[in-house]
């Protein structure tokens, strides 16, 4: 990727451009707030449970701001080199290959690090100099210090529910970001999202949202999280293909959420009571 990025940046950036307006239903004033943060190139943290709309929001914002978006799904084996880049061997010898963060920094994209706490600690160290007034990325292995493109912005997501003491962002990292809280949308907004995304009638979408809201009350009583908006969209899509409500909810909500037989039965009761 590095070779391509250096020889033809426009072509590379083009791959990351969002061409069509993504559907995003604003929940509060997050669009305006994010716009103001971007105007200042302020790093932003999107906080909230999985499947509540963080990724869709950043896709929408990138489209709205006309910036390419480079998304990295962080995982526990991810190291700083996966973000920044590394030397690779090819027929002509060693060539440097930029990582996705470096590409975004050089070319002025929004870089979205999804679930950064999943990655090893050394990854958070590389983002520090990018998140203060220096806006630089040191490529130690290459002996290069990159000054970030003026359009570059760093955005991370963070799920407060999953964090444990060992797997949390350091205070010194957290304090570099402005943060937007993403809960699940309120009932009318979530109904609108599910109806539109799954292509089902609002009445049916509302029923799924009611089920989800009940399931969210079970958080901490056998469930780590209740049903997410994403799960409701999936349920709605199965129903749209002729699957019954119960079967669709079983497949997209009950079975994915828990392996515990009692908790599954409790969820099934919630679904029958709402249906
Ligand atoms: P997260 O990144 O928080 O895990 P996503 O952004 O992938 O979650 O959201 C999951 C799905 O839920 C999206 O693909 C979309 O269908 C739907 N969704 C959730 N919130 C919204 C919203 N406010 N507007 C439009 N779609 C939404």
From TrEMBL:
ATPase dynein-related AAA domain location: 43-177
Molecular function, one GO term: ATP hydrolysis activity
Keyword field: ATP-binding, Nucleotide-binding
Ranges for domain CbbQ/NirQ/NorQ C-terminal: 190-273
SUPFAM superfamilies reported in the protein's UniProt record: P-loop containing nucleoside triphosphate hydrolases (SSF52540)
Family matches, as InterPro entries: ATPase_dyneun-rel_AAA, CbbQ/NirQ/NorQ/GpvN, CbbQ_C, P-loop_NTPase
Record-stated family: Belongs to the CbbQ/NirQ/NorQ/GpvN family.
Name the UniProt record assigns to this protein: CbbQ/NirQ/NorQ/GpvN family protein
Gene source species: Bradyrhizobium uaiense
Lineage: Bacteria, Pseudomonadati, Pseudomonadota, Alphaproteobacteria, Hyphomicrobiales
């Amino acid at each position: 990727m590095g070779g391509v990025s250096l020889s033809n940046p426009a072509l590379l950036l083009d791959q990351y451009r969002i061409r069509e307006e993504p559907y995003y239903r604003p929940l509060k004033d997050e669009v305006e707030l994010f716009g103001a943060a971007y105007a200042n190139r302020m790093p932003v943290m999107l906080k909230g449970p999985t499947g509540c709309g963080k990724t869709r929001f950043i896709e929408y914002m990138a489209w709205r701001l006309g910036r390419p978006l480079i998304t990295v799904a962080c995982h526990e084996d991810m190291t700083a080199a996966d973000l920044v880049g590394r030397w690779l061997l090819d027929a002509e010898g060693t060539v440097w290959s930029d990582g996705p963060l470096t590409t975004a920094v050089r070319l002025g994209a929004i870089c979205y690090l999804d679930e950064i706490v999943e990655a090893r600690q050394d990854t958070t160290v590389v983002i520090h100099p990018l998140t203060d007034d220096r806006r630089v990325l040191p490529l130690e292995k290459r002996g290069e210090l990159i000054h970030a493109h003026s359009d570059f912005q760093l955005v991370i997501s963070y799920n407060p529910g999953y964090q444990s003491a060992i797997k949390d962002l350091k205070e010194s990292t957290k304090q570099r970001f402005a943060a937007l809280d993403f809960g699940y949308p309120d009932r009318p907004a979530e109904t609108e999202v599910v109806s539109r995304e799954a292509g089902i009638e609002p009445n049916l979408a509302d029923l799924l949202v009611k089920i989800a809201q009940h399931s969210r009350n079970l958080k901490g009583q056998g469930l780590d999280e209740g049903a997410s908006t994403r799960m409701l969209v999936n349920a709605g899509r199965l129903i749209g293909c002729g699957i019954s409500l119960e079967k669709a909810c079983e497949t997209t909500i009950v079975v994915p959420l828990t392996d515990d037989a009692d908790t599954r039965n409790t969820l099934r009761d919630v679904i029958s009571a709402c249906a």
